[in-house]
Amino acid sequence: MQPRLAIFDLDNTLLTGDSEVLWLAWLRAQGLLDAAMAERNADMDRRYHAGTVAPAEFCSFYAALFTGRTPQQWQPLLDGWFASVIAPRIPEAAHALVQRHRAAGDVLVLSTASSRILAEPSAQALGFGHLIATELELLPDGRLAGRTEGTLNMREGKVQRLRAWLAARGSDADAALAGATFYSDSINDLPLLRAVGHPVVVDPDPRLLAEAQARAWPVLRLARNSLATETT
């Protein structure tokens, strides 16, 4: 009998905020970006929550922030950002929920539209062994190109990437998804929520809450540090 999958979105689910949005705000606070970028950041965040921004536009906008440096050159800024901005935004209830699935022997997968370079620190802090994220292109000299690479891990792309990941592990994707639990806050994740046997919405946006109520999906409020399930 194969272990069950426990799949988690990151931003606004296990984390009270969005990694990409908070990264741009951090760069702005360090004096590395101008006010116009802050305005574009707010617009991108608003349209993401509304489910109206195209995945290519969203992911490309944030990928461009990394243009011209190697991951190693970004590391000092990433370390400061994670310690001061991100780690305090991961509620104890989020750690406890992940640990509950770990203790049950489930296979833990963090699946996020954010880029791998931004998601990896959170994956490590929460103890995930598997991370599926949007990938950034590396140039031959090791610098980041400021572009994405491969299938974007957003909306239907999350289902495609997860199925490819399962196939690479030699798993029956249909059977694995039927037994899987997926936690997310966002209407953007509706394709994967529909694909799994056990969808759970976490601090949902209004459109996803309406879907959860219509489908009688359980609702969690991790931002309140609660693991109690609401009835819909």
TrEMBL record:
The keyword Acyltransferase does not apply. It comes from the Bacteria. InterPro entries: HAD-like_SerB (IPR050582), HAD-like_sf (IPR036412), HAD_hydro_SerB1 (IPR006385), HAD_sf (IPR023214). Keywords: Hydrolase, Magnesium, Metal-binding. One of its GO terms (molecular function) is metal ion binding. It holds the Pfam family HAD. This is HAD superfamily hydrolase (TIGR01490 family). It comes from Acidovorax soli.
